[in-house]
Structure formats: structure tokens, C-alpha cells
């Protein structure tokens, strides 16, 4: 079974919306506006590209990343790996042609079937709504979190607010950086 990894830039109060400057959010760009950049704090992002063998996205994140990431050197490893977009509305004609193999999945059952295939880890970037559904369905195996020392208040959150039984996580890696960022890697205890 393949490991499904959710990775996120997240504020201390759980917000994941518009970390890179996406329009329409009051605190858009919060990852670089208020925190000193330290390369070592972001090393996990390069490691994720080397570890992952496929990327899973929700439609909104796909539509935000696909016009930009294919031509960015920082995301070159993602260009060649298979991508899967979970959407009930996206069509083949909506997919970009310069970002490699992309498959549309129509349901969480299809995501579960993908996890049963041969291959290495599948990484989920952004995709707040998809993360909620994946978590509620018990499909996430690991979280890679870069926690920013910010309170953003309103905004999309990484974790579902569904009323459900407690889900235990095991801290497997952590580090704090001089700029206040914290890397936290959790395995989901199934």
C-alpha cells in the first residue's frame, strides 16, 4: 500500500489558505510577509519532491498550481511525476499540457484504489477541502507540517471539523528554527 502524505504550510491556529500570495484572502502571502526566510526551515520541501512518486490535488489547488509550477525550477521534480486531481467537475480539456501525466479521479474510492497500487508515496499539496475528506475517510498516513508562528484567524483550515472519534498521531520528526518555524512530521496511527 502506498503512503499518502499531506504537506502544508500552516499557521499556529490551523489556517492553510493562500500561503503563497493567492488573491482573495486577507492575509494572503503570510509565509513570506511576516517571517524571515531561512533555507534550512524549508529543506523538507526539497526532500518531499525526492521522496514522492505521485502528487494528489483537489481541483482548486490544481487550478492554482498548474499554470505556475510546471515552469518553476523549484518544482522540477513534480513536473515528471504522475499527478492525480480529485474533482467531479474538471474535464480532460481543463488539464494543462505542459505538466506531465495527469489523471482525474472522481471519488475517494478511486483515491483508496490508487493507494492500493504499486509505487512510493503520494503527496498532497494545498487542497484544504480534499484534505478534510481524505482525513475523514482515514486515507491520510502522514502529515508534513511547517508551522508558522502566526495567528491568522479566519481562513481555510487543514483539519476537518467533522464530529468524529479521536485520531491518534505519532510525532516521528520535529525541529524548531531560529525564525520561529517548526517542522512537525506525524504518522497517523491507523
Describe the structure.
The chain has 6 helices and 8 strands. The chain is globular. 26% of the residues are buried. Helix content is 22%, strand content 25%. The model has no long low-confidence stretch (mean pLDDT 96). It is α/β, with parallel strands linked by helices. Strands 4-3-2-5-1-6-8-7 form an 8-stranded mixed sheet.
What is the typical, i.e. mean, pLDDT?
96
**How much strand?**
15-25%
Number of H- or I-type helical stretches:
6
**Amino- and carboxy-terminal Cα gap:** 13 Å
Q: Tally of extended strands?
A: 8
- Which strand order do you get reading across the main beta sheet? 4-3-2-5-1-6-8-7
Structural class: alpha/beta
Let me know the largest β-sheet.
8 strands, mixed
Quick one: overall form?
globular
| Whole-angstrom Rg | 16 Å
**Helix coverage percent of residues?**
10-25%
The ordered H/E elements are EHHEHHEEHEHEEE
Low-confidence stretches: none
Amino acid at each position: 500500500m502506498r503512503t499518502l502524505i499531506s504537506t502544508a504550510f500552516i499557521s499556529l491556529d490551523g489556517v492553510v489558505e493562500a500561503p503563497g500570495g493567492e488573491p482573495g484572502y486577507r492575509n494572503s502571502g503570510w509565509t513570506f510577509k511576516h517571517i524571515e526566510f531561512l533555507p534550512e526551515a524549508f529543506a523538507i520541501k526539497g526532500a518531499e519532491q525526492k521522496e514522492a512518486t505521485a502528487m494528489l490535488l483537489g481541483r482548486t489547488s490544481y487550478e492554482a498550481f498548474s499554470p505556475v509550477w510546471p515552469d518553476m525550477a523549484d518544482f522540477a521534480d513534480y513536473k515528471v511525476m504522475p499527478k492525480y486531481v480529485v474533482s467531479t467537475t474538471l474535464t480532460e480539456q481543463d488539464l494543462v499540457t505542459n505538466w506531465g501525466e495527469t489523471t482525474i479521479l472522481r471519488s475517494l474510492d478511486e483515491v483508496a484504489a490508487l493507494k492500493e497500487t504499486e509505487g512510493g508515496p503520494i503527496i498532497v499539496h494545498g487542497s484544504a477541502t480534499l484534505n478534510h475528506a481524505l482525513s475523514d475517510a482515514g486515507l491520510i498516513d502522514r502529515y508534513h507540517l511547517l508551522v508558522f508562528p502566526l495567528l491568522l484567524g479566519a481562513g481555510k483550515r487543514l483539519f476537518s471539523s467533522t464530529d468524529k472519534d479521536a485520531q491518534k498521531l505519532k510525532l516521528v520528526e520535529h525541529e524548531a528554527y531560529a525564525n520561529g518555524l517548526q517542522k512537525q512530521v506525524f504518522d497517523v496511527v491507523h
